[in-house]
Amino acid sequence: MYLFKQVADLKEALEHEKKAGKRIGFVPTMGALHEGHLSLIRDAKALTDIVVCSIFVNPTQFNDPKDFEKYPITIKEDILKLNSVDTDILFIPSVAEMYPEGVNGMHLHYDFGYLETVLEGAFRQNHFQGVGIVVHKLLDIVQPHDLFMGQKDFQQCMIIKRLLKITGIPSKLHISPTLRENDGLAMSSRNMRLNQTERQTATQISRTLTWMKENIRQMPFPVLKENAGKQLQDAGFQLDYIEIADAANLQLLDKTIEKEMVMLVAAKLGEIRLIDNMIVS
User: Range of 215's domain?
Assistant: First the structure.
């Protein structure tokens, strides 16, 4: 695996590969890697010739400075994990390398429309603008044929689809299913910050989503969401939202539809904010 820290060096190396006819796959991450990230690398390896992974904790997408400061940094372990799945290239830029104009400098503003007004967009002001800024920068640098992301960040995946349309970037987005621990907890870098008791409690999110899925056609949505919210609050969560939406456009629903739906949850357990979702066919 080759490691790059400078944009110019990475671009030069990738240009050489592209001239040789190689297909480039890209997996952007913020590090603190887990099996979910590695599954994206494997997916990319199966479909492309050269797989690039980036590790960059992006300051512009954190609406809470404390959350940014406490985000887990495990670079040595991450490198070992990426080597174990034969990642070709790792890009680890500094903040100055990614934001030569300064983090608080002038940035593009993206029209994400309705997607930026609900759920994560409503609770994390400017979060998706920060995501758009950094992913646009990374895509301009790597210029991949294929981009790989996980379904756990369902709304973010929809934002990236919109970003690709807005910018005209021709990369093809591949969304892989959420990977879960044996007890159902969605794999997440933030899980590292949970203590032993919180880690056990956190499994209630997936249990509640499973319960909702089993009852979604038997209960009115307001009753279903109220009962699901009570399950989480009784377990010790502070609930941000629990919603059911059209999986195609994230329009919030008050009754079942004959199309794919998605149930989405965000809740805090102590200082740790966890999100999860589950598709209903």
Answer: 189-276
